[in-house]
């Protein structure tokens, strides 16, 4: 498996430029950053959240952890972590646990942590555990156009 078809089709339709970076099989964003010699501050990880009215994708640096209380304070108390089965259904064309930080192409609202938005370049999962996508800041901004943003993570 490489880039998920849903993500690939969206990037092509929107003319978003990126580079594919193959890497050894990894099962966490921290290990992916190490394998690719990329700063965890520049690797965007996606956390799927459930709300009363559907799902939400939180995008934050791999070097950070989600502060759910901060996220709830800014975006509403009805937010909770999604279950693995829910995530697998939402991202059916992705490997289990390899959620791309590109909720728009999956019909999800997105919240982007301010700390990842300021990076000069961003890396995202491609939908498997062996491929990263490299985007410049402007291309990542296009990928997350219309997304809300705020501070809801802390450095590990």
Automatic annotation (TrEMBL):
CDD domains: YbaK_like (cd04332). GO terms for molecular function: aminoacyl-tRNA deacylase activity. Residues 27-142 form the YbaK/aminoacyl-tRNA synthetase-associated domain. This is YbaK/aminoacyl-tRNA synthetase-associated domain-containing protein.
């Amino acid at each position: 498996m490489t880039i998920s078809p849903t993500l690939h089709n969206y990037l092509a339709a929107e003319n978003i430029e990126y580079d594919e970076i193959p890497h050894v099989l990894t099962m966490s964003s921290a290990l992916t950053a190490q394998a690719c010699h990329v700063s965890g501050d520049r690797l965007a990880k996606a956390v799927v959240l459930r709300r009363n009215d559907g799902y939400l994708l939180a995008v934050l640096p791999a070097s950070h952890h989600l502060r759910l209380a901060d996220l709830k304070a800014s975006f509403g108390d009805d937010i909770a972590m999604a279950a693995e089965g829910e995530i697998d259904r939402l991202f059916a064309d992705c490997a289990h646990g390899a959620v791309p930080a590109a909720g728009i192409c999956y019909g999800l609202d997105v919240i982007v942590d301010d700390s990842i938005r300021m990076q000069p370049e961003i890396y995202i999962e491609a939908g498997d555990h062996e491929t990263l996508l490299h985007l410049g800041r402007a291309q990542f901004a296009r990928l997350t156009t219309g997304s809300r943003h705020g501070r809801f993570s802390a450095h590990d």
